[in-house]
Amino acid sequence: SHGSDTAWPPSRDKTLLPMNIYYAWDLPISDSLINSVMQTSASYLTDLAVSENQDVGDAPLYPNYAIYDTTLSRLYGDNLPRLQSIKAQYDPNNVMGLAGGWKF
């Protein structure tokens, strides 16, 4: 690739296009059920794509579309140590850790 280093995607060796699966529900009591359904749907679609010879089994997930419990390594791959180092340097008091989202 001719681009400079970025957080995402971890590698520009292959082109990736994020896909957003959207679910909506009203009752908080349904949160765990819907989260399970989202994970099952994402796994099913990934397995189906892999079965059709698409090289996406270990593709990094786009952070804005990833399910809440996705690991940082699945989002940022080999870039994670560099990002953690930058975070430690510029946010030593963990101010950004007070907000929601993934924690470096």
UniProtKB/TrEMBL annotation:
Superkingdom of origin: Eukaryota
Q: Under the GO molecular function aspect, what terms does this record hold? A: flavin adenine dinucleotide binding; oxidoreductase activity
Q: Which residues belong to any copy of the Berberine/berberine-like domain?
A: 64-95
InterPro entries named among the record's database cross-references: BBE, FAD-bd_PCMH_sub2
Q: What is this protein called?
A: Berberine/berberine-like domain-containing protein
| Organism phylogeny | Eukaryota, Fungi, Dikarya, Basidiomycota, Agaricomycotina
